Hints:
Layout: E1 8-9, E2 12-13, H1 14-19, H2 21-26, H3 31-51, H4 57-70, E3 74-80, E4 83-88, E5 95-101, E6 104-109
Antiparallel strand pairs: 1-2, 3-4, 4-5, 5-6
Amino acid sequence: MDNIANNQNASGSIPGALENKTEKRKMSINKKILYKIAEETEYFYDRWQDEQGLEDFSDYVKSMEKIINAKEQEFLGLTQNPFKVSYIDSKTQKTVVLKPDATGISVIVK
């Protein structure tokens, strides 16, 4: 990922939100895993923007599922429009949704 500090969530940048104590309690998901999955999500998003006429989206779904499951998280899905990935954080059992766009990645924790 080029610069994860520029990625946004509902309350600000990912690092800023995680450093804030109030937000830290709310987002007590595994940060290392979140960052790794965010990097992969951004890569797949950028690639899909370039290759969507040439590649099968189901291959992206299978690859993202392998990546998330390998990190011992529960893959929920990857959608094409809007492009977003969802998984369950094994530490908190919260659903995490990553939605990349041209400006960064929105993170939603439910």
